[in-house]
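JOB MANIFEST
job_type = single_chain_structure
chain_count = 1
residues = 352
[input]
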Amino acid sequence: MSEQKYTDAEFETLLNKYDYSFQKGDLVKGIVCSYDSSGVIVDIGAKTSAYVPSKEAVVDKSVSLEDTLKKNQEYEFLIIREEDEDGRFMLSYKKVALAYNWRELEKLKAEDAIVEGVIVSVVKGGVLVEVKGVRGFVPSSQLKLKQGEASIGDKLELKILTMDIQQGNFILSNRKVYSEDKEETKKDLFESIEVGQIVKGEVVRITDFGAFIDIGGVDALLPLSQISWRWVDHPSDILKVGDIVNVEVIVIDQDKQRISLSLKNLEKDPWLEAKDKIKDGDKVEGIVTRIKHFGAFVEVCPGVEALLPNNELIEYQNQKDVILKVGDKILTTILKFNPDDRRISLSIKNED
């Protein structure tokens, strides 16, 4: 085959076809040609093909190289190294993509939108997450998760607190999303809940004066007096954190956004049963439940307490030569039973 000859004008035209003025820092468009074991070959219109190393190609590690930069598709690249000895430029797709992602994140922050992040590392004081290829930090104070609950690979719904592209500063909050969701849930609940409604909830906190029950995003109070018809010294005697209980809504305060509950209302009223079982003058054996300076409370029927006045208590102890204590059994007489006021007075005067 004879060698092709070019005139000076033709040769100049051919050279101009490959003329370029690319340099480090330039943004260029290129078409993906092929892949090798360590990167991507890209045609950017230079004399030789350009090269994108794998670490400069993949933004999301869960997406393959071939799916990130698809063959025969055009993308935008940043020149990160000028021609090497083979006349080939080195490019980065990742830096360009991250720049666009930063811009998108700025927009999402302005909109106060929720973004999804994946935990990539658990560190002292919080977790590192990746959002759209950008690595950010979620402080422990902004995590709804408790210590030890966060694991690498977990997905979190987040709000952007602060971001500085120049400094690479990116701080997010998981708790802010939760608190806003909780407020919305609380609003919906207060619009739909009614007094007398039976709801299911989880015991989330116990105090001296009652227990707080999560009834679907709202912590409602179950007062100590509403736990049982029987005398209860402390809520922890009956309930523990994590218990699932059915309760009745007894008070709704829309202004203060508070709800009160009752557990004992779901049981039969023992005073109604006692009305059919005992009457004035009956002798009954009961159990001492409380001892106060004014007398002793005695459970004469399940869930029904009657008062033995202090003077009667002292007289009984003197007669029997005993000191009564909680849990002791005692035989008494029903002196006066007022079921409407839920009061029973006891005496030992007619006790044999």
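[summary]
The first strand starts at residue 27 and ends at 36.
Residues 28-92 form a domain with the OB fold (Dihydrolipoamide Acetyltransferase, E2P) fold (CATH 2.40.50.140).
exit_status = 0
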